[in-house]
From TrEMBL, chain A:
UniProt cross-references to Pfam families, sorted A to Z: AIRS, AIRS_C
Family matches, as InterPro entries: HypE, PurM-like_C_dom, PurM-like_C_sf, PurM-like_N, PurM-like_N_sf
PANTHER family: CARBAMOYL DEHYDRATASE HYPE, HYDROGENASE ISOENZYMES FORMATION PROTEIN HYPE
UniProt similarity note: Belongs to the HypE family.
Protein name per the record: Hydrogenase expression/formation protein HypE
Organism: Hydrogenimonas cancrithermarum
Domain (PurM-like C-terminal): residue spans on this chain: 157-305
Underlying gene: hypE
Residue span(s) of domain PurM-like N-terminal: 36-146
Length: 331, 380
């Protein structure tokens, strides 16, 4: 009897297989099959998305499940250049959950809604017996107004350059460190943040990115691979250019992870025309926390549907989709 | 100023040094009378070579053969079945390291057992099992111990602590294996069904972390009795490149010696305290079956008889099967582990066998040769 494994929720290869072989197979339609961050509906004027949030611990350095549940959904809208407008909020609580903690989470939600200029217009609350869920699960659905049409994972074009908005892997590293009780000399905080203010600024200057995507589960590696596949292009990246903080690099060294496979919650990638790259980087760097924004590579046609990582000593290799659960190496 | 981890590895990934070593190897290789096949015994080296694209920097006259040094890859199905069965016993928590939970046995992997309700946990360090045992006094915690010389001292330390604290609910299923015996097996195969590997392996790169514990001395017989030079190397790209240079030089200068590249922590004798701790709790197992390699004498450890009460293999002897299990017919992990074939020569590589749905263990482990080829291979 086949059963669901944790690896199938990793945002990588197994997760993709589950989605395509089960959900897409039964529920497919023109909009769903585009597999964008948010679905563009109503003649391209509205974008819609939904996400469920389960995270352990629920309060972590740099955020909490409340902030995450607003950022995650609003960021998916922002990646389609859609201004977040309305959210629904569905909360499943475990019996015994402290009301004080719930209030803290709701305050955090309120704060992050303000960042996005969005509001919660409908909601639902369920309480289940102890042990049925891990403390609290939150589902948010978002509706946004599309400001620039045509942005798509399948619209990455040869000659485009790839820009990353900040140093990568912070959310994954922070959650790992908190969950596993890894004591670090320098604290690591999640990058959890709302991206709409940055996207709005980019678009206001007249730049029209060909594609944008926030690098959540599966990390930067998953986004680049999805783009390469959906757009039928090759993406070549300079390993040495990818910004990684020393703490994240240290955690990866210790546990044998690749920073490009770690999750982010406030970091996104853009594919833009080469002449727009400098302007985009400058705008991103003007936002606090995003000083490391940088161009990391470009789009070519050398190995279609593949991502190539170039080393500083002149060798090349493929950067694949992360697979399996993130597990530390043995020796 | 405090020391950052980065400071420790940065110079061992320095592009200028790597390029300079590549140039030196190229010059030295021109003096070779024939191409040489270097076996990197450890999967960690395979990954360094693939991840950093080092093969692309070397002349064609130097070929790498991937060896059997991955604790997950060499675990036969029957041992994984032991873990699977133990995990399903009532009130048992099965604890193991990293990738082990993904390897398929004949009944499934530990990951499958977990999705069916078994309490399977992976830990970073064997000592984490101690905490689990203390926090769950009503459960039996079984540590499924795996690994080469590198991880054995930690299992011994766990045993030491368990005894000191008087823990009654922590048991061990020991699968520790040793490097020199399998290397000898590769040269001296007694298996009549397999071609002699004798002529393929010209030299070995020995894993530094094994020798940090066991000393460089464990490789002494290879240059002396088997006429195969050994260089004990670290895992950073500069280490591997320097190790290769040292080997090539031995050939061009017609030497055959045991040398240590990783002089920053490897001594001839190794860590004597760790060796004493291992000897206190473990003794050689007469025979141990290695996946794809068959039964190899004295190549693994077991708990000494005086610690039988901690031995899960003995405590659960009635329910643990003893018969051997064949591997998947299409999987050539055995040939890959023996250095007889490359992952890409396997007909199911990256088709029926992928990291997400592995047929063989070499595709499972992050140190397996197939996983390295799948993840990093293929370009240029």
């Amino acid at each position: 009897m086949k059963t669901i494994t944790l690896a199938q929720g990793n945002g990588g290869e197994e997760n993709r297989q589950l989605i395509s072989e089960l959900f897409f197979r039964h529920l497919k339609n023109d909009i769903l099959q585009k597999a964008e961050d948010a679905a563009v509906v109503e003649d391209g004027t509205l974008a819609m998305t939904t996400d469920s949030f389960t995270v352990s611990p629920i309060f972590f350095a740099g955020g909490d499940i409340g902030k995450l549940s607003v950022c995650g959904t609003c960021n998916d809208l922002a990646m389609m250049a859609a201004r977040p407008c309305y959210l629904t909020l569905s909360v499943v609580l475990e019996e015994g959950f402290e009301t004080r903690k719930l209030e803290k989470i709701v305050r955090s939600i309120k704060k992050e809604l303000l960042e996005n200029g969005a509001k919660v217009v409908a909601g639902d609350t369920k309480v289940v017996p102890k042990g049925s869920v891990d403390q609290i699960f939150i589902t948010t659905t978002g509706l946004g107004e599309v400001t620039v049409p045509g942005i798509s994972a399948s619209n990455v074009q040869k000659g485009d350059v790839i820009v990353v908005s900040r140093d990568i892997g912070r959310h994954g590293a922070a959650i790992f460190a908190a969950r596993e009780g890894i004591e670090l000399e320098s604290a690591i905080t999640s990058d959890c943040a709302s991206l709409w203010p940055m996207v709005e600024k980019v678009i206001e200057t007249g730049v029209v990115p060909h594609a944008m995507r926030d690098a959540t589960r599966g990390g930067v590696a998953a986004v680049l691979n999805e783009w390469a596949e959906a757009s039928g292009v090759c993406i070549e990246v300079d390993e040495g250019e990818i910004p990684v903080s020393e703490t994240v690099a240290g955690i990866c060294e210790l546990l044998g992870f690749e920073p490009t496979a770690l999750a982010n919650e406030g970091t996104f990638l853009l594919a833009v025309r080469p002449e727009e790259a400098e302007k985009v980087v400058e705008i991103l760097r003007s936002f606090p926390g995003n000083e490391a924004a940088v161009q990391i590579g470009e789009v070519t046609d050398s190995y279609l549907q593949k991502v190539i990582l170039r080393s500083a000593w002149g060798t090349k290799r493929f950067m694949d989709l992360p697979t399996g659960e993130l597990l530390p190496r043995i020796c | 100023m405090s020391l950052q981890l980065k400071d420790l590895y940065d110079k061992f990934r320095d592009p200028a040094t790597i390029k300079a070593l590549a140039k030196l190897i190229g010059e030295e290789a021109k003096k070779l009378e024939r191409p040489i096949n270097v076996m990197e015994v450890c999967g960690g080296h395979t990954h360094t070579i693939m991840k950093y694209g080092l093969k692309q920097l070397l002349p064609e006259s130097i070929e790498f053969i991937h060896g059997p040094g991955c604790p997950v890859c060499i675990m036969p199905k029957e041992r994984i079945d032991h873990a699977y069965i133990l995990a399903q016993q009532p009130d048992v928590i099965l604890v193991t390291l990293g990738d082990m939970i993904k390897v398929p046995g004949s009944k499934g992997s530990l990951q499958d057992a977990r999705s069916k309700g078994a309490d399977v946990r992976f830990v970073y360090s064997p000592l984490d099992a101690l905490k689990i045992a203390v926090e769950n006094p009503d459960k039996t915690v079984i540590f499924f111990a795996i690994g080469f010389e590198t991880t054995t001292p930690m299992t011994a330390a766990l045993m030491d602590q368990a005894i000191e604290r008087g823990l009654k609910n922590l048991l061990f299923h020991i699968n520790h294996v040793t490097v020199p015996e399998v290397m000898k097996e590769l040269i001296d195969s007694r298996d009549v069904h397999v071609d002699s590997y004798n002529n393929r392996i010209d030299a070995f790169i020995g894993p530094s972390h094994v020798s940090v514990i066991a000393g460089a001395k464990i490789y002494e017989p290879f240059p002396r009795a088997y006429h195969r030079p050994v260089v004990v190397s670290g895992f950073e790209p500069v280490d591997v490149m320097e190790g290769v240079l040292m080997l090539v030089k031995q050939f061009s200068e017609k030497r055959c010696e045991l040398e240590v590249q990783y002089r920053r922590s490897v001594t001839y004798e190794g860590n004597l305290k760790a060796q004493a701790m291992i000897n206190k709790y473990f003794e050689k197992r007469g025979l141990f079956k290695w996946r794809g390699l068959g039964n190899i004498p004295d190549s693994a450890l077991k708990l000494r008889d005086e610690y039988a009460k901690f031995d899960a293999e003995k405590r659960y002897a009635d329910i643990l099967p003893k018969e051997e299990i064949e591997d998947h017919k299409l999987c050539i992990c055995g040939d890959i582990l023996r250095g007889m074939a490359k992952p890409t020569e396997c007909q199911v590589f990256s088709t029926a066998c992928k990291p997400s749905s592995p047929l063989g263990s070499c595709m499972v482990s992050s140190e397996g040769a197939c996983a390295a080829y799948y993840k990093y291979g293929g370009v240029m």
